[in-house]
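User: Structure please.
Assistant: Input sequence and predicted structure:
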Amino acid sequence: MSDQYLTGNFAPVLEERSDDHPLELTGVIPPDLDGVLLRNGPNPAVPPDAGGYDWLEGDGMLHQITLGGGVARGYRNRWVRTRKLATELGTPPPTGPGEPIDGPCNSNVLRHGGTTLALCGSGFPLAVSPTLERTRIHDFDGMLASPMTAHPKVDPISGELVFFGVDPFGPPFLRSHVADRSGMLAASEEIDLPRAVLMHDFGVTATRTIFLDLPVVFDLGLAGQGRSLPYRWSHDEGARVGVLPRQGTGADIRWCSIDPAYVFHVLNAHDDGDAVVLDVVRYDAAFDSAPDGSLASSAPFLTRWTIDPSAGRVREERLDDRPVEFPRIDDTVACHPHRYGYCTLLRSEPLSPGTAGLIKYDLLRGGSECFDPGEHRSVGEPVFVRAADGRAEDEGWILSIVHDAARDASDLVILDATSFGGPPVATVHLPARVPCGFHGSWIPSTS
């Protein structure tokens, strides 16, 4: 296995910091940015052996950047202290019940019902204290029986948290859940699947939930070999999307076949009359065995699936021919029609590390704008924050953590989404390098 995930900005950071003082700043931070940006990602606490590390299995580390009053008030980072990590480090384990699967909690972080949750999709979530130093297993008062996805959706109207979990040792292999705005689990439903698949993300509209039964399947043999993600591409298994009414039972789901593909991330979903519009980042294949024994994936492209559950048909439209990932929207329009989408733009050159920039799509009128971070700089996931007085969907700010390879240092870049290709309105120069990671959230100080 290649050591690419132990070098450059993939290399682990081995220090926890508490820089609780104003940070160096270029430009002006918008005054309505009052809160914290939290970002999660893999960062092994114990340096792994060369040749045997898979980036997806690294211990989770949270990075917190606090903004307010036009100032970057501080930065801190902490490992997400799972039971496994606590055992390795000899530190107190998280409080709470036992887990059927102990995941690394390295994929996402969000706040709902007054609780900050670190997520990874292969275990229970961990509730994290405001200082990021303490964790507890969060199983919704004993009502959660299987792992929780790293990509739950918050309905901006009802405040509900809609999520699912795949149990590789089921059946049932798939469970759908809804927590009310206070964070209490209000409903759970078992969904019939013939086998466990790697279902990383899904779609939610105002009235329906869309599940992705795609041909990356769980392999017990690979699990027995100690593979951290024991899944493999299986083209002959077929692919389909399932549409379930938000208030329905497992018997109400309607499946529609599609060409074999894989989706790690969904931009958004919304109702369009009887149809469902689902915008995804689509791969032709993933977790496919390469000649050297590693796992390979095809290039990912933003794609629209228009699903007609009554007719059992899906119409597919590629929205761009540039490879992208980490799609985000204005979360205040989640589950409802969206005009704009934001993604990281991937480099197309073979073996070229990092990202080429950020891209903003106008999915109503067509067209796009790009932000170029500059030479030797790679961007992270774009997080949109609506301006306090924002009325149009793109009136707000894009926050992205940028790595500068020339300095081997990281910045928080703040863009005006209405002038996306222009220079940043502010750049916060962070006191520590933030390794390549996955997903995060903006948490207002009032939440």
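The chain has a mean pLDDT of 93.
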